[in-house]
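Q: How do we represent a protein-ligand complex in a form that can be generated token by token?
A: Start from the inputs.
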Amino acid sequence: MKTWHMIIDVEKCEDCNNCLLACKDEYVNNEWKGYSKPQPNLGQKWINVQRKERGTFPLIDVAYRPTPCMNCDDAPCIKASKGCASKRSDGIVIIDPEKSKGREDLVKSCPYDVIWWNAELNIPQKCTFCAHLKDEGWKEPRCVQVCPTGALRIENLTDEEFSQIIENEKLEVLHKELKTSPRVYYKNLYRFEKCFIVGSVSIKKDGIVDCAEDARVVLYKEKVKIEESITDNYGDFKFDKLDEDSGEYTLEVSYKDKKSKTITVNVAKSINVGEILFD
Amino acid sequence: MGKGVMRYTNNTNGGPVFVYVKAGKIIRITPIDFDDKDADPWTIKAKGKSFTPPKKTTVSPHTMAWKSMIYSPDRIKYPMKRVDFDPNGERNPQNRGVSGYERISWDEALDIVAGEIKRVKKDHGPGAIMNGSGSHHTWGALGYWLGARIRFFNTIGWTPIAHNPDSWEGWFWGATHHWGHSSRNGGGEAYSTVEDCMQNSEMVVFWSSDPESTSGVYGASEGTIRRMWLKELGIKMVHIDPFYNHTAALMGGKWIAPKVGTDSAMILAIAYVWITEDLYDKEYVATRTIGFDIWKDYILGGDDGILKTPEWQETETGVPAKDVRALAREWGTKKTYLTAGGITGFGGACRTATGTDWARGVVCLMGMQGMGKPGVNMGGVQQGTPVDTRFYFPGYAEGSMSGDFTGPGHGTTLYQRMPQLPSVNTVKQVVPRLRIPEAVIDGKTSGYSTDPMSIEGQFFEYKYPAPGHSPVKMYYKYGGSHFGTMPDTNRYVNMYRTDSLEFVVNQSIWHEGESKFADVILPACTNFERFDISEFANCGGYIFNSFTQVNNRVAVMQHKCIEPIGESKSDIEIFLEISKRLELANPFSEGHSEFDWCKRFFDATDLKTKISWKKFLKRGYYVIPPTTEESRDPVSMRWFAEGKEKDTPELTPLPGDYTEEYRKGLQTQSGKIEFESSSLKRFDPDDPDRLPIMKYVASWEGPSTKELYDKYPLQLMSPHPRYTFHTQSDGKESTINDISEHRALIDGYYYWIARINASDAKARGIKENDLVKLYNDRGAVICAAKLTERVPPGTVHSYESSAKYDPVGEPGKSADRGGCINQLTPSRMIIKKSHGAGYMSCLIEVKKWDGKEVAI
Ligand SMILES: Nc1nc2c(c(=O)[nH]1)N[C@H]1C(S)=C(S)[C@@H](COP(=O)(O)OP(=O)(O)OC[C@H]3O[C@@H](n4cnc5c(=O)[nH]c(N)nc54)[C@H](O)[C@@H]3O)O[C@H]1N2
Ligand SMILES: Nc1nc2c(c(=O)[nH]1)N[C@H]1C(S)=C(S)[C@@H](COP(=O)(O)OP(=O)(O)OC[C@H]3O[C@@H](n4cnc5c(=O)[nH]c(N)nc54)[C@H](O)[C@@H]3O)O[C@H]1N2
Ligand code: SF4
Ligand code: SF4
Ligand code: SF4
Ligand SMILES: [Ca+2]
Ligand SMILES: [Ca+2]
Ligand SMILES: [Mo+4]
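Then emit the structure tokens for the protein with iron/sulfur cluster bound:
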């Protein structure tokens, strides 16, 4: 039995918001009977692109995490719904636009914050995975169709086939600890959830400072070597995928025959240690 | 489609679309997925891999917002008259912008406008009617402002507003003098550069270039996949931009952030490293360029005693010398593509006070590296796909039904194909767009010509008023963008409120900044409510063959999908109705409807050899097949690097502009890349703004203007908005307002956004989403603050082009909370002898806004 899954690659998302706008195009002012009532023109983001900046000028990166309904297999919203939300056999979770009248409480039932309250129509609303289009034979939901980078992907597969993809592509779910069995999987979530240590190594020779290429930087945590990085032609190095608030680390920086330097940093979130100069 | 749904086609600034209509209402707008009947795309083979783009069209965000724009509550639904305007009595011009409007009938509105046209011509003589439009428009070759609008105004006689070369500025006024390309406003060609870049280059330097935001121009998301291919091929990327832009964020690579408008110092330092470390192409410099030794001498301190070292540039740009040296060394040793601007010829850096030096400087750098050799060229794969350039389909700048055969595009590339009544403006007076307020308020001004026919065309100064002509008395404004897009825009607000303008009519689709400063408002409809015809990303004109930005060329029948909203009419119909009242209907329309003109246009193109008119109408689009691999265009500038005749499919240089032999050499006097420009030597060798060689001249507004910098210590950069197309789709309750990086919803109001480095914010007690006042001596704008590390300390980033002007007090004299950042930008010409803007060179201060204070 094939069911629907979505795969979102955080590294490929560029915050263009084509997905959000296509979603609005489909749902604002349109009623899809049995699936959804019109979304208000402004105020709801059924796919919500969250942003995260890491580091400080000039060593930074930025990542975006589009967040639609997870279509959980163990959905708290269904549990709380007293029958007004349900799961279709293809995996999609639908909040019945008629039965859910007045159920503002459903908004809070979702741990992913993807249910929106429509005050005018007095109903909770969310992403429907474009169920009405799938039922008409469309191969992709609106958001996937307009994604320019392939950050959004939709797969109609059996559980076995999909678990193979999870393994091969190292997919993760958002907030695994919630145990809601989401059908939306992420790639490269570290760009959002983990942090880094970056810096630039330089060398002074004959009064001139240059970038130190091929400097060796070793990262230690409690004296245990974790990783090693060789600087690029700008002298830059980066250690990524560290846990936020993971405490003290030591960097050992060596360059050619120079005496190596040791730097201690305290990691709360991503940190730019700045320039490390050999002279 | 079934269920009473019809699927039409149409086209936008961000890609062609299917339009689904049910019961007279648009229900959805999507990109076009091609089917088996459509031609397959091309394949590029590079480094052992094959790359083929998807068989579909892509979109820009603003395209996906169109439905909300069509049904926007800010649509002008019926003709209106200002309540205290009486054409036969009190006109109360001082109340423009404050008094309200009443609904009037079309008959009344058209009678007033036609009556005023006759009256001002009779009372004042030729020149009294001024018209201007935006630089952009709803898509469609006929309805475009370069089509029907020109024919109409030529028919009645008018003072046109001459556009400054806005997108190109520094390229037009600077780069042209070093490598020609005047027909491209000083920008470059890009034939087959996608394939060359993928196959032969090792690095791409993006300099003031963010195609992920700007799509080149009109290119939807077509270039995105190609840039992802570069990444897949392991081609390194560097981004030189004071803003960590969206291309940098997606592609990764080194980010180098000079202070706004200081790039020319970095250029000199790069050249310094290449000269002193022997990292340039000496053979090419010797045989393909002239004047290098003079520039070299300047760089090595020969005339001012200053070595233009990386250390020297650091004091100007703020970029560590070591980073510039590392960049120069890498660039000097790797085969490198330089993309300066989203496409070659653009880039925010060209719209700074030093934009002419940046643009000519990057041309000089490429002159040192052997531009045209395999893997060494200009472009960032945004243009130059292997589509078929031989298939004839004109862009909007070819002037469609304008009949204006003296307009460059029309006469050279369309007129012969689409015979029509010629239309000629009999009024020889022009108002420079950047000086409209001065023309109106002071009654006199001057400008330099944006003439792309030759390098020397731009040397001609013209005066307003023209000899024997009437000053402007009536302003027929088309659209309402200028408060958001022109520099120092309180000038434009104040202009409306003087009595020099006896009559103002505004013809617009939506209420935007300027519409409510008119006496009469005429409601136009969108391109989804009328017929038109066009091609994906084909503007033609200054960006000849601009469709090489797309992966699949698509010709589109723009169906009239729904009836016009309210009482709105197509622009062409409005012009026709006025023409009728002036007995000018025939010269304006040749008796043809918009639909008839579509057919005439179709017949002018090569479409007619591939598909019948009937089939085209029904299917709505045609995919122009790519050429075979063997017949792809030669790579731009390859002929030049190899010392051959020009072999790219370009019309220019015009025959008379070759020096020794037809098709041999560039347009410059020497036919070579000129480090020392012969045209500038001829024109004015001592002009300190524009010396024959590029030297570092500090910005006239920036960190080196000490006194002003002490007072206003932040540099405001205002590049092109990512989510909207200029003012199009901003405000108007378009769905784009929901994007929190576009506007921020605070206390029920959607505020424009200003990005400020966290340290600058902290020093001013500003927190995320605080309302702040951005101000200088020219104006004040209320924005929502976003704290970020994407700009260096000392720089504030806020997009230009707010569609909304919402003064908190008296118009023109109070802070604007609509978000017209251009209230703050300088109106000084980029260089004195030009008609060009240096928007990006703008000093401001920012402070928390207490919600009360209103005066500037
Ligand atoms: N600070 C700063 N300012 C800049 C720039 C910058 O980099 N920084 N860039 C400059 C550049 S490159 C440009 S091109 C300009 C653009 O500046 P403008 O050309 O002034 O801006 P647009 O928003 O394109 O203006 C188009 C206008 O035409 C109207 N319009 C569109 N379609 C139709 C139609 O079918 N009928 C009618 N009647 N009206 C229509 C729109 O509503 C809008 O008012 O901005 C410039 N301003
Ligand atoms: N979404 C969208 N797309 C558009 C448009 C739009 O309004 N919206 N407008 C279209 C038009 S008319 C044009 S002309 C093109 C414009 O295309 P471009 O001119 O290429 O775009 P800009 O955003 O003005 O500038 C590109 C980059 O230059 C950077 N920049 C600004 N000042 C400086 C500087 O002093 N030095 C350096 N190194 N970098 C600087 C900006 O941060 C920006 O990332 O875009 C077209 N495409
Ligand atoms: S994400 Fe929220 S709304 Fe969606 S299925 Fe899970 S609990 Fe329900
Ligand atoms: S799947 Fe459909 S409903 Fe869900 S976010 Fe995407 S477009 Fe919106
Ligand atoms: S369309 Fe794709 S790239 Fe754009 S914001 Fe959505 S997920 Fe990200
Ligand atoms: Ca006459
Ligand atoms: Ca010549
Ligand atoms: Mo432009």
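Residues B 60, 135, 167, 207-210, 213-215, 217, 240-243, 245, 258, 260-261, 263, 341-342, 346-349, 352, 717, 719-722, 725-726, 801, 840 surround MGD (ligand 2) (CB under 6 Å). Chain A touches chain B through 45 residues (CB under 8 Å).
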